[in-house]
Amino acid sequence: MPPAPALSPGDGRLFIIVMIAVLASLAVAGAVLWLARGLLLDRLADRVVRRFLKDPYRENLWDLAVGMQRIPPPLLLELELRADKGKLLERPLGGLRRYSRWEDIAFNPAQLARRPLPPGARVDTSAVLGPRAERPLHLATPLLVSAMGYGVGVSKAVALALARGAHQAGTAYNAGSGPVLPEILEAGGPVILQYTGGPWNQVPDELARAAMVEIRLGHGARGALGRLIRPDRLPEEARRRMGAAGHKSLLLEAPLPETESLRTFRELVDRLRQLTGGAPVGVKLVATHHLEHDLLWVLQAGVDVIAIDGSEGGTSETPPILADDFGIPTLYALVRAAALLEAAGVRQRVSLLAGGGLRTPGEFLKALALGADAVYLGTAVIMAATHGQLSKAIPFEPITQLAWATGQLAGRFDPGQGARTVANFLRACTLEMAEAARALGRDSLRAVDRSDLVARTPEAADILGLPPAWRPPRSRP
């Protein structure tokens, strides 16, 4: 038998044998490394556990966890920032605490005592602000985009997205305490303009084009405090429109000089009403414990709309002490304001708006049931505006760097996409509220009232005056 042919370098069998040997070597090396790494990790884990279980408390790493139980991570961060800078700390988006327990309230479904509406039955979702004004503000939904001003808060692209999204959903955008952008006034949808202590918010030609004017007296996250605005914290166009000169800070004055007497305040309301040709003139109040006194005072001036901003209200930035430790919760303020308007006999004339920490369609509809004619949405709408664009900021920057006027990533925000997602959010929430109205047997959101609510807790029953869910009703349906 002839001898087997020797393998040559060009023979395919030689290549296969070499590859098998290389792969086997790599597999062995990988197994060795895996075992070594496993042993190393096992020893490291054993060492950490032994230290946790044997070190005295004052030397134990778990002492940090104990400290964080006493000072949670958000507060620990602010502690470190104060210690590092020694300057006034300002936090974005408002307070950390939430005192309005909307979850303690439940809707009472229609069933036999009252019949629910059939699927798809028409539900009127419209709202009217200032019904007795010469030209009331008619909206397709009671969901308003809250005051988020260009320059002092959001970027131009975000402001345009908020306004266009609101208009696409059939509602109004509040232009806030920043300068008014001509593009927003010319967009054709309803715009609420604020009259504030800044001269840039007091331009007659701009105010005359408002669908509603809101005199800003207070703010949930800042109280009724004024503000110094540093020009270096504003984009160039905002500085120009606000009349900033050099390095001098701009003053957002508070309280307004017109509030020195009821007479001068009434004159301001009348002047704004004439300037707009009869558009509703409203007032924005921070919810204080003297709420009834403040409400009666502004009612004497003849305002058409009152907006109550609870302590959970957001803002672009504010000292944590103002956001966390001032004001009364939105839920309590709303109930008190609605009761006062009812007692004063003006409930059919003066519209009531509620804002501050509202997040879900259920909370929005509960606010309407408790007496609000519409609700202001801020942080929730900002989150909706950035939907689909978060990857432009996260994971290395917060979304505020994408939305704020001087954010490092403000130029990456797409206003067209933002407008679409804002409109989608408002429409979806309105549809969800309409479905809830059908489940209540109501053909209008305005028809949903306190009789549709029950309290889930004794505290809610006592504080809000709602029937307790654990006790049968006193009267037949």
Summary tags:
477 residues, alpha/beta, eight-stranded parallel sheet, two-stranded antiparallel sheet, 16 helices, 11% strand, disordered N terminus
DSSP, total strands? 14
Distance between the termini: 107 Å
Please tally the helical runs, counting DSSP H or I stretches of 4 or more residues. Answer: 16
User: How much helix is in the residues?
Assistant: 25-40%
- Report the structural category: alpha/beta
Give your account of this protein's structure.
- This protein has 477 residues and is of the alpha/beta class.
- It is built from 16 helices and 14 strands.
- Strands 4-13-12-11-10-7-6-5 form an 8-stranded parallel β-sheet. A two-stranded antiparallel ribbon has the order 1-14.
- α4 (156-168) packs parallel to α15 (415-440), α12 (361-369) crosses α15 (415-440) and α13 (379-385) crosses α15.
- The termini are far apart.
What topology emerges from the helices and strands here?
Elements: H1 12-54, H2 62-70, H3 73-85, E1 105-107, E2 127-129, E3 137-139, E4 143-145, H4 156-168, E5 173-174, H5 182-185, E6 191-195, H6 204-207, E7 212-216, E8 227-229, H7 236-242, E9 250-252, H8 262-275, E10 281-286, H9 291-299, E11 305-309, H10 320-325, H11 330-343, E12 351-355, H12 361-369, E13 374-377, H13 379-385, H14 400-403, H15 415-440, E14 453-455, H16 458-464
Parallel strand pairs: 4-13, 5-6, 6-7, 7-10, 10-11, 11-12, 12-13
Antiparallel strand pairs: 1-14, 2-3, 8-9
